[in-house]
Amino acid sequence: MVLFDDDGDVQEVATRSAISRTMFTEWFKINQESKVARSLTFDQFPRQWVWNRKLKRWTMRKRGFAIGRMYYAHPTLGERYYL
């Protein structure tokens, strides 16, 4: 989720470091780099990759299979659901 003031500068909001590297944007980057990652959908991805919060980067799991955590959006939430 990205929050900003109505009177804020659009360029400043778009270049914030907090939003420049999210789980979703880094998923796109790792898909460019890894053939294994490209074979997984976003909801399957946490089974084989883990999100490193400090580095803000996906890394391959070392201990094997695990069920990752995905955020849930109910269909009645409209735009959030369709994202």
How would you characterize this protein structure?
There is one protein chain. By secondary structure, the protein is of the alpha+beta class. It has one domain (12-82). It is 34% helix and 10% strand. The protein is built from five helices and two strands. It has helices spanning 10-14, 17-20, 23-33, 35-38, 79-82, and strands at residues 49-52, 57-60. It has a two-stranded antiparallel ribbon with strand order 1-2. Strand 1 and strand 2 form a beta hairpin. The longest helix has 11 residues, at 23-33. The chain is globular, with a radius of gyration of 15 Å. 2% of the residues are buried.
**For the report, how would you describe the main beta sheet?**
2 strands, antiparallel
- Give the SSE string: HHHHEEH
Low-confidence regions: none
What is the gyration radius calculated from CA atoms?
15 Å
Q: In oligomeric terms, what are we looking at?
A: single chain
Overall number of strands: 2
First-residue to last-residue Cα separation = 11 Å
Rounded mean pLDDT score: 82
Strand content: 5-15%
Number of helices: 5
Number of domain units: 1
**Helix and strand composition category:** alpha+beta
Any idea what the shape is? Answer: globular
Biggest sheet strand line-up: 1-2
Which bin fits the share of residues in helices?
25-40%
